[in-house]
Amino acid sequence: MSLNEFIIELEKELSVLPKDRQQEIVENFKNQTQKAMALGDTEEYLLKILGEPSEVAKKCIAEEIIEKPEQKKEEKPLEKKKGRLPVTGNFAAEMKDKDIKQLIIHGESAEIKVVTGKKFGIKFLSYTRKGKLEYEMDNGQLTLHHSGSNDVKFNTIIDFMKKRKQLKKDELVITWPEPLDMLSVNNKDGKVIVTDIEAEEFRITTEVGAIECAGLTGNYGELRSAMGALKLESSDFMNLFMETEMGKLTAAGVSSERYHLVTELGKIALDNLTADSDLKALSKMGSVSVNYREKPRFTKIVARANVGKVKNALEKNTIEKQNYRAEYMSEMGSVKITVN
């Protein structure tokens, strides 16, 4: 199959959509493939990564039928407190014989840690004594809900000294012994640390706060922060997604077949990632630096900087065959690629 044949088949598969939307999707698809080929990708490689036209069409159609009002309706049950129970000092013992496959944590203003251990344990500390921790258990899914903030007010320096301990965020530490189907942590305000956990899927997000992870093993990893740095070390995934609006993005010793690494306002620092892999690293306002421990054999390297300089130690690297593509881009900073 050629690219032209692929596009014709794609257009047929999209026939359930309105005509103007069909044309828009197909034109956008043509533009993207033309840009890729202008940058050196072959038709054979593009067809390989695209897959079947029917599968591409299914994804496009699925995106069209998802409506925002329905998403809002799905969010409402999370706000309801019906069915929640308080986490007591005997909570770990109560959960001892439960078959928990999914661990979900919602934090309001807390420092959250999930670490490996021989048995399940939980420690919760609220310096303001206003923080609460509740839980729900349903079909193998344990959901923990933290509520409470540290908006302590003070009028004088003496008042501040008396209340300074209360300014500390609530602390939640969970020790987890077994592999999970999914670990999800959603924290509004505060750092999240996850170490040495195995799960099929990781979804870790913060609104304000850094995310630091190490020793993770899974199929899919997603780390997101609106305002906070992202750091991932010594981990193994099939697919890795890291994105922050304001913060540095660091990944070292992380194996994956596909990487998507983006920061709006911050640097990207990468070291010892999988040499042959599909990768996109984009910093809109900062620099991108990457160090390879071995030269790629099947990966085309693309390095671009709109404003800053590009130093690419792999610029003349010859590959045996293009099976993958790695893009390193900065809109306002420099791009540097080294080999050690």
Description:
It is a single chain. The chain has 340 residues and is α/β, with parallel strands linked by helices. It folds into 3 domains: 64 residues, no CATH class; 114 residues, no CATH class; 131 residues, no CATH class. Helix content is 22%, strand content 43%. It has 7 helices and 22 strands. The protein has a 22-stranded mixed sheet that branches. The relative contact order is 0.08. InterPro entries: Toastrack_DUF4097.
Secondary-structure topology with pairs:
Elements: H1 3-13, H2 19-38, H3 43-50, H4 53-65, H5 68-79, E1 85-86, H6 91-94, E2 102-116, E3 121-125, E4 132-138, E5 141-147, H7 157-163, E6 170-176, E7 180-189, E8 192-195, E9 199-208, E10 211-214, E11 220-227, E12 230-236, E13 239-246, E14 249-255, E15 258-265, E16 268-271, E17 278-283, E18 288-292, E19 299-305, E20 310-312, E21 324-330, E22 335-339
Parallel strand pairs: 2-5, 2-6, 2-7, 2-8, 7-9, 8-10, 9-11, 10-12, 11-13, 12-14, 13-15, 14-16, 15-17, 16-18, 17-21, 18-22, 19-21, 20-22
Antiparallel strand pairs: 1-4, 3-6, 4-5
Helix pairs in contact: 1-4
